[in-house]
Amino acid sequence: MKIRPPRPPRPSVSPFPTFSGKLHDARTATAIGRWLGAAITVCFITGVISHYLQHPPPWLANELPSRPYWGYRVTQGLHVASGIAAIPLLTAKLWTVYPRLFVRPPLTSVRHALERLSVAVLVAAAVFELFIGLLNTVQWYPWPFSFVPVHFAVAWLLVGALVLHIAVKYPQIRAHWTLRSPGTLELPADEGPDRRSLLTGVAAAVGAVTLTTVGQSFTPLGRFDLLAPRHPDHGTQGLPVNRTAAAAGLAGVSTEHWRLTLHGEGSSYELTLDDLKAMRQHTVTLPIACVEGWSKSARWTGVRVRDLLERAGARPGAAIRVVSLERRGSYRVMEMGGDYTRDPLTLLALRLNGQVLSLDHGFPARIIAPNRPGVLQTKWVTRMEVI
Ligand SMILES: Nc1nc2c(c(=O)[nH]1)N[C@H]1C(S)=C(S)[C@@H](COP(=O)(O)O)O[C@H]1N2
Ligand SMILES: [Mo]
User: What is the per-residue pLDDT across 183-219, written as a single tens digit (0 to 9) for each?
Assistant: First the structure.
């Protein structure tokens, strides 16, 4: 009987790439992840604020505060800026952790399967939110669903998956939270230049996209605003136009035939444009803060909404519905709670930066109110009803 000599073991060749560098380890993932986590947290909180200011549930509608007058400008500026900053951060984070896609065996236990599933949900939700959010800033909607409810719902999914992810990864996050060794001020010797270069590169990318877009709402940096879709200095009468009269289907408004109708609780009345001009005029400086991210302050002159309501015999702080001449469109009808109608800064404006409102800015009359999303600053107003 012949005995075969034992075969030398075959070197096992994995069809999958292997990674050993520092750029794909838990320390790099943590370093980038904490900045990404911070950006997503700011984006989520400011997004929830924006959502409830724009679409309050009935119990909240009359409680929304009209101050600070600059509130929405700041929260929405942060929302769009943190979302834009999250794009290079998410890209870098995914690049750092993508070797984990090739981990073998793909599933070791139920727990491992659940962990991978939660990461899949997290990544999908994050990519989806940043993608549709970015396209929304340029008002491009190449999808069949409506943006706001979907963006809002997936945000909760994203934050839920993020909380789960942080809980699961807590031991690694804690171990790698700072890049310094415990008790020293020096970077440990094994922190080669590559990790630092990567983090510097990511920081530079975040700085670059922020600097070239944040000027759309933070106007002192306006001259660096090269990439944002809107520039606060472009537009008639010193203010960008979000939706032109032509886009809203308004060819013109006849001053002669235009009326403002006011439905109070007991009484109703109608005013011509001359009647409105004859009422006491007030001038306020307030921003238009568009949900899409741009903001610009302007000087508005017109009649206080509370004076108009008082004249209709409405109780102070009544909530109202405002209707535009525009025939269709989601911004044709707007509702406004008592804090806004009571606020002396809330105007039915007739003039903008010292000139009669142009048709694109809402001639003959538009709403301007403090701490309000731009979409609710209704243009071409023709009717106000106490509700
Ligand atoms: N009737 C009506 N009002 C409207 C709109 C609209 O489409 N229709 N757009 C709103 C949006 S989204 C913004 S940001 C502001 C912009 O005002 P502006 O175009 O005068 O800058 O108007 C708001 N008022
Ligand atoms: Mo807007």
Answer: 555 555 555 678 899 999 999 999 999 999 999 999 9
Q: Whose CA is nearest to atom 23 of ligand 1?
A: 375
DSSP state of 386: E
Least reliable range by pLDDT among 15-29, 150-164, 344-358: 15-29
Residue nearest atom 11 in ligand 1 by C-alpha distance: 375
| CATH 3.90.420.10 residue spans of the chain | 238-386
Please name the residue that has the structure tokens 């106007």. Answer: 219
Q: Is the pTM of this model over 0.90?
A: yes
Where does ligand 1 bind, in terms of residues with CB under 6 Å? Answer: 239-243, 248, 288, 290, 324, 326, 329, 331-332, 361-362, 374-375, 377-380
DSSP 363: T
Q: Which CATH superfamily is domain 238-386 in?
A: Oxidoreductase, molybdopterin-binding domain (3.90.420.10)
Bridge-partner residues for 297, per DSSP?
287
- For residue 373, give the ligand 1 atom closest to its CA: 14
Q: Report pLDDT digits (tens) over 13-38.
A: 667 777 777 899 999 999 999 999 99
Ligand 1 centroid to Cα of residue 245, in Å, is: 10
Looking from the CA of residue 239, the nearest atom of ligand 1 is: 21
Q: What angle do CA 65, 66, 72 make, to 5 degrees?
A: 95
Nearest to 232 by CA among 300, 139, 294, 288: 294
